[in-house]
Amino acid sequence: MTLLFHLLIPFFLSIPVSLVAAELTTAIPVEGGFYRWVRIGYGNFWGFLAGWWNWCSSFVLGGVYAVLFSDYLRFFFPSMQLWEHYAVSLLLIALMAWINITGIQMAGAVATVLELFILLPVAVLCLIAATKWRHNPFLPLVPPHVPTFQVFGVGLALGLWLYAGYEQMSSVAEEVDNPQRSYPIALAIVIPISIATYFLPTLFSLAALGNWQDWKTGYFSEAAKLIGGPWLGFWMTVAAAVTNISLLNATVLTGTRMPSAMAEDGYFPSSLTKKHSRYGTPWIAILLSSAIHALLAVLNLGQLIKAYAWLRIAVTVLTVLSAWRIRQTQPQLARPFRIPGGRAGLFYVVAAPIVVSVVALLGSDRFSLLWGPVALALGPLAYGLLRALRAGRPQVNQSSAL
User: Fold this and answer.
1) DSSP bridge partners of 31
2) CA 310 – CA 364 distance, rounded (Å)
3) How far, in Å, CA of 59 to CA of 72, rounded?
4) FRET pair for 223, CA 20 to 30 Å: which of 230, 277, 303, 381?
């Protein structure tokens, strides 16, 4: 089922969302990206929710990557204590905050170098494992004696985590050179690489080892060791740890521009809009978000991902619906990139993410069903509270989103 999710979820999530992001980023390349698209399409309330839910989901996501980085270090330091695990997570979060304060150019250069470093051991693992194909990697479909729908729901939540977020880079559109050209090209390159990077090493490793029951968080290091020897296990562990550094870097980059953009629109204190005197980055927003990442890094991976799924789904649905809405209300808007397929293409990019989101929510476990709605409900509460605090001050108007 993991392999099936790797292959199928992109057609319901990352591909349609990336097409929406490409069209709207080229048409409305503003700081805050999808948050402002939703405001343009549906007004201040829904725009605020898109920004608030996304910012909250970035808190969770930052915690996830810090936790995973420390998890992989246990390969080298198996006796690592809980406080040491947390201390490493804190140091990583602090480092990524500093890199992002220095500017998008530094963050982008770090991301590029890290990604190239990550892909090489993955390719080597696939080549070696392919020569040792001994098992059917698609069997069993789900672990025996476990309810199929339970496995489906948890697996789908993990799949959404893997393939969600392709609209995120729109939040820094104003900091990118020629976003009308850069974004469609980048998305067209990244999505096939993303699918291959998730699917192929999993496929070949399972085919070579056949030990699906042993897989757990961080197992790729052990799989690489069994397939290629200690040297490949070491290399893969370093690459896996670096992967989480890269992902945390991207999360800080995109997530911290959201409170800055919302502060510009009057929702948050104006201090969050303050730019660094040397680097021109929203450094206070970066430090605040990083502090919350640090607080959440004390939780475990499963809890963080389950909370993230509900918030991510809500933001994704609002994002794709904004593409439909803006097509209706602003048909003459210049769109250097346009979602292909006419009305059918537009229906696909809106309907597919909604369908997979509904299925994911129906398959949620008890923890998710309890805390997911709570996480969403904080959005309207925050809007009401901030609106009351803003009473008597100049009101936010939708034109500022353009």
Assistant:
1) 172
2) 9
3) 21
4) 303
Euclidean distance between the first and the last CA atom of the chain, given in angstroms as a whole number: 43
Query: Each residue of 233-258: b (16+ CB within 10 Å) or e?
Result: bbbbbbbbbbbbbbbbbbbbbbbbbb
pLDDT, one tens digit per residue, over 42-75 is: 999 999 999 999 888 887 778 778 888 888 788 7
What is the DSSP secondary structure assignment for residue 131, as one 8-state letter? T
Q: Pick the residue with more confidence: 302 or 169?
A: 169
Position of tokens 């982008």?
108
Compute how many other C-beta atoms are within 10 angstroms of the C-beta atom of residue 275: 13
Residue among 227, 221, 228 at smallest CA distance from 242: 221
Query: For residue range 224-282, what is the model confidence (pLDDT) as tens digits?
Result: 999 999 999 999 888 888 888 888 888 887 777 788 888 888 888 888 888 888 888 88
In order, the DSSP letters of 34-91 are HHHHHHHHH-HHHHHHHHHHHHHHHHHHHHHHHHHHHHHHTTT-TT--HHHHHHHHHH
Task: Pick the closest to residue 75 from 63, 64, 62, 88 (CA basis).
Answer: 88
Q: Tell me the C-alpha distance between 244 and 197, whole Å.
A: 14
Q: Give ∠ CA 360-247-92 in degrees, rounded to 5.
A: 125
In angstroms, rounded to a whole number, what is the distance separating the alpha carbons of residues 165 and 84?
30
CA atoms of 309 and 9, how far apart (whole Å): 14
Mean pLDDT of the chain: 86
SS3 114: helix
At residue 141, what are phi and psi to the nearest 5 degrees? -65, -45
Tell me the C-alpha distance between 305 and 1, whole Å.
Answer: 18
Q: Exposure string (b/e) for 41-62, b if CB count within 10 Å is 16 or more?
A: bbebebbbbbbbbbbbbbbbbb
Distance of CA 73 to the CA centre of its chain: 22
Rg (CA), the chain: 21
Look-up of token digits 């199928």: 8
From the DSSP assignment, how many helices (H) and strands (E) are in the chain? 15, 0
